[in-house]
Each structure stands twice: as C-alpha cells, then as structure tokens.
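Exercise 7.
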Amino acid sequence: MEKIVMIGYGNMAKALISGMVGKYEILVTGRDFGKLKELEKEYDSKIKIAQFPISIEGENVILATKPHSIAEVSEQLSGEAKTFISVLAGVSVEKLSNTFKAESFVRAMPNLSALFGKSTTSLTGDKSGKYLASKIFIEVGSAIWLDSENELDIATAIAGSGPAYLALVAEAMADGGVKAGLKRSDSEKFVAGLFNGFAPLINSHKASDIKDGVMSPKGTTASGVATLEENGVRNAFIKTIESAYGRAVELR
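Solution. The predicted structure, written as tokens, is:
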C-alpha cells in the first residue's frame, strides 16, 4: 500500500483522509499531539500519527495547513520529498519550491465534498507529479489537470469556494419557503432534495437546457426566474467568481 504523509488535521485534511483511508498508508503529522490522537481515535487507528518534527525524505506529501503557517511548517520538516502536493489556496508552486524540498510540486484545489467522494479537484504543477496527484484525488471524486496556475486560481473560485456560495443559495431558498408558509424542517428537506437531484441533471444536461425545460409560458418558474434576473443574481454570481479569482491571485 502506497504511503502518504498528511501535514495538517483540519477540515480539508479530514475530508481527504476519509476518502483515502484503507487505500493508502496514511501518516498524519502536525504540532498538536492532542489533535493527532483525537484523529487517530476517530479513524479507529487506521491511520498513523507523528508529532513534529519529522523527516519527509523520499515521501509523497500532502500539505493541508493554513497558508500563513508554511514557514513554520517547513522548519519542522527535514529531507527531500518525492512528490509534494499542496491544497493551500493562493500559495504558488514557486513559493512552495522556495520553502520546501521535493522532486516535484503540485498544487491541488479540492473542496469539502471530498468527504463524500464527490470533490472535483483542480491540479497543476510539475508534470512528473501529475500521475500520483491525479490518482490520489480521483479517490475523493474527480480530478482535472490544468495547464497553468492562473487556470487553477479560476477553478478555485468556482469549485473550491463553490460550496459556500451554494450553501448561501440553499439557506436563502429555505428561508423563502418559510416566508411563504412552509415549516422550517420541511423547507430544508425540499432544498436538500433539490440539490441531491440536481447533480445528475447538471452532469448530463447544459444548464440553459435545464432552465428552459422547467420553464413554461407564464408559469411559476418563469415568474421566479424573472425575479432573479430583476435582482441581478446572474451578474452577482459572475462578479463573485471574478472577485474570488482576484483574491487568489493576490495571495500568490
């Protein structure tokens, strides 16, 4: 079984571990031994743990900490990794290679749907790391290799940050149902069912075709879509992607 060293124990690290456990030998490392022990217990000792400092000589590594902590993390690592994969937003391959030692560097941007094996992960970096990175992230959904970090930053604005946008949409729709007269619990169930059923639709149909297929002349959907357009929802989402992309570029 291939070994992966996971640096970090936050939400994204846990999501990736959940997708990879049993398929890879996973060693989780970090500075807080208490959190490491909690994680070991959570996964019924199916993972191994090691407190900083450690050697990553010849290892395949996934970095899943906070972006601002990379200098501190690098001081706790010795040796040269084989493939070094970072899931940190806004941290460039150049910055990674100036901070850590590895034969190849790859940037990856999964999202929290990795917890359920449904993340669409964007990847870019050194081509020598493409095979391993793709193989790892296919275990937690699907993986798309991009030609540049600029494209990855755009993808981050969509797929990486997207769960937050969709959560806001879901919350607002549930609120709308409550305002119209549904009980909160029922409204939330309908919204959850909508999102669950929409996934296969968007995977097999163009978004415009789905919209047109639901709309009928002078119908309820046409009225609702007109209200969304009057309130600039389409433009708001376009601006949102541009804004998130711009921030990713600033963080590089």
